[in-house]
Amino acid sequence: MDIIEKLAEIFKEFPGIGERQAKRFVYFLMSRTPAYNENLSGLILDLKKEVAQCGECFRFFILNNKKEKLCDICSNVNADSSTLLVVEKDSDLESVKKSRMYHGKYFILGGLVPIVEKTTKSRIRIEELKQKISGSKEPNKLSEIILAFSLSPQGDHTDQYVREQIKDVSEKQTVKISSLGRGLSTGTELEYSDNDTLKNALKNRQ
Ligand SMILES: [Zn+2]
């Protein structure tokens, strides 16, 4: 494999990027100055040094000093600890946060459950979610979990899977499980939803 192919293989792993786009990225980089590419590779290296993963919700956040273990939402004492919004990925959390329609806590599942796959457990944080529910207690006791996945067959499948997995522990802890309402139209990615859509989906959760 030559360098063009090697790099294209890497870009192909990026979300939403196909073979042709991956190649276009490589050609784009070839046309840039050495300084441009140096800056880019430096930023990629620094990314891992300057961000950390939150120990509570698992989102990535920028480290202000090297010691923080929790992100700004999880460490915020004013955030409503009674609700937990479960999303697939960081960008979903960001769009809900930006909408200012929700003031509770979050949990990043880390993926959706593929319909055909049998060994899903290792890829999403279902055990961590169960632990979070079973470990919740006064004064920060959870009362509701809101599942907020994309309205796609895979999103629906994940919704069902998570409901089933957390059913027992939620009952034991008297935590209600709800899902985002159908304000989101089918196929809509949470991260691309506008404020009104999100507001309705939250209001109509069931
Ligand atoms: Zn957090």
Automatic annotation (TrEMBL):
It holds the Pfam family Toprim_4. PROSITE patterns: TOPRIM. It comes from the Bacteria. SUPFAM superfamilies: Recombination protein RecR. Residues 82-185 form the Toprim domain. Keywords: DNA damage, DNA recombination, DNA repair, Metal-binding, Zinc, Zinc-finger. InterPro entries: DNA_Rcmb_RecR, Rcmb_RecR, TOPRIM_dom. GO terms for biological process: DNA recombination; DNA repair. One of its GO terms (molecular function) is zinc ion binding. Belongs to the RecR family. PANTHER family: RECOMBINATION PROTEIN RECR (PTHR30446). May play a role in DNA repair. It seems to be involved in an RecBC-independent recombinational process of DNA repair. It may act with RecF and RecO. HAMAP family: RecR (MF_00017). This is Recombination protein RecR. It comes from Candidatus Nomurabacteria bacterium GW2011_GWD2_39_12.
